[in-house]
Design a protein that fits this description.
The protein is mainly α. It contains two helices and four strands. The protein has helices at 45-92, 94-145; strands spanning 20-21, 28-29, 35-37, 40-42.
Length: 149
């Protein structure tokens, strides 16, 4: 009576338990089928070569990713430093800045009042013109139809 094998079995030897999965294609493999180099276990020489080649590429990608992350962190620190310098400058010159804001606010209020006055004046003049036009038309109609007597 044969004993039952728990877990995965080697694809090439179905009666032998698998000790690993191929690093390239993920097939279960036994100790006899395993090809190992530099800590990488694969099912064939072709998969092993692909794993070794891709490890170089993956290592290069990870190195570039680390460099790009460093650049991102560095640029964020530069931006933060600039913001801190501007905040310090604003704090050191807060009275002058507040005076500028007050002057700007006063000028804005003055211009706004002048604009409102001009709009009101023009609106009143336009209303007078309309009223005068209405009065002329009414007088003309009254005269035309004989209501002016």
């Amino acid at each position: 009576m044969s004993s039952k094998i728990n877990g995965s079995v080697c694809l090439n030897h179905p009666n032998v338990p698998a000790i690993a999965h191929c690093a390239t294609c993920r097939k279960p493999i036994c100790a006899d089928c395993a090809k190992t180099a530099e800590g990488i276990t694969c099912c064939s020489k072709a998969c092993l070569q692909n794993a070794l080649d891709s490890r170089v590429v993956v290592g290069d990608i990870l190195t570039r990713k680390k460099k790009s992350e460093f650049k991102r962190i560095f640029s964020n620190l530069i931006v933060l430093l600039i913001i801190l310098v501007l905040a310090w400058f604003a704090y050191q010159h807060r009275e002058q800045l507040l005076d500028l804001f007050r002057k700007g606010k006063a000028k804005t209020e003055q211009v706004s009042k002048e604009a409102v006055g001009q709009v009101k004046s023009k609106a009143e003049n336009y209303k007078k013109e309309l009223d005068e036009g209405d009065a002329r038309r009414k007088a003309a109609n009254d005269k035309k139809y004989g209501f002016d007597e």
